[in-house]
Amino acid sequence: MHGLDLLNGRLKLRHLVLVVAIADQGSVLHAAERLRLAQPAATRSLREVEHILGVELFDRGPRGCTPTLFGDAFLEHARTVLAELRRAGDRIAGLADGEVGVVTVGTVLAGSNVLLPRAIMSLKTARPGITVVVKEATFDVHVPRLLAGEIDLILSRLNPVGDDQGLRQISLYAEPIRLVVRRGHPALSVPGVTLADLFAYPWVLPLEQTALRAELEQVFRDHGLRLPANLVECTSSLTVRTLVRETDMIAALPELVARTDTDLAALPVSLEPVRPQVGVTLPRTRTLTPSARLMLDHLRLQSAELGQ
Predict the structure, then answer these.
(1) How deeply is 97 buried, as exposed, middle or buried, from its count of CB atoms within 10 A (0-12, 13-18, 19+)?
(2) pLDDT digits (tens, 9 = 90+) for 237-254
(3) pTM for this structure?
(4) CB 193 within 8 A of CB 179
(5) Stretch (H or E) spanning 122
(6) Which of the chain's ends, N or C, has fewer CB atoms near its CB within 10 Å?
């Protein structure tokens, strides 16, 4: 394996595309269907790349194909190569006429409910030929995708990042977190309602690995309380808002959500000092494509117009 030369012309771009498709689809058959190939051709192409590398990239089983140790290593680089090629095409197209391209935004709950839709609408009004792809996940899931070039930027609350992570961050605004319930919720009629008064209700909170969850847990501890026993953990904005609208659940959501959703109401219970900075996380050294740069411009514009 020492000195393996992958630039000798035997490894083709189609090999990279196929290996990634098999990993994403879970089988050679489904990958072939996705790529509009005959299954024998896909199988033959996979054997070619494994012969070139001298290792097996997938374990074949009754439930499909699972990447081997070698497969995981190869996939990491294959995804990066394909992402960079897509970025190159996007950049050339953007430089050519400034009217077309693709920008992929990774987002979490903060910023995704109000700011991102407004920025997308603003961008699409100005540049209808630009396609915006939005992917929702937790911040820690987004970072490897950002560094690999699969997404262009992350819009979220700004989690601390180390100097060695290859990231840079731009703050857009600071937004308080409010406790939110449906209109007509019984807690809204409790005079001088406190956090302790809300303990018996069902709650929906962010996942444990999020910074907001850690800060909310600290607020409970500061009030001498444990976390509520009746709890749902979720970071899907659509699911959270539906649960709050349709039940007596209490959620901790950005203030803009409570302000702009007429079905929700904010409880007069302070969560200070929870006041996260919302902003954009970018790769430190990679240049933004024209489409991504326009997306960032519209995020800045809309955050200013929201009065933050």
Answers:
(1) exposed
(2) 788 889 999 999 999 988
(3) 0.60
(4) no
(5) helix 115-126
(6) N
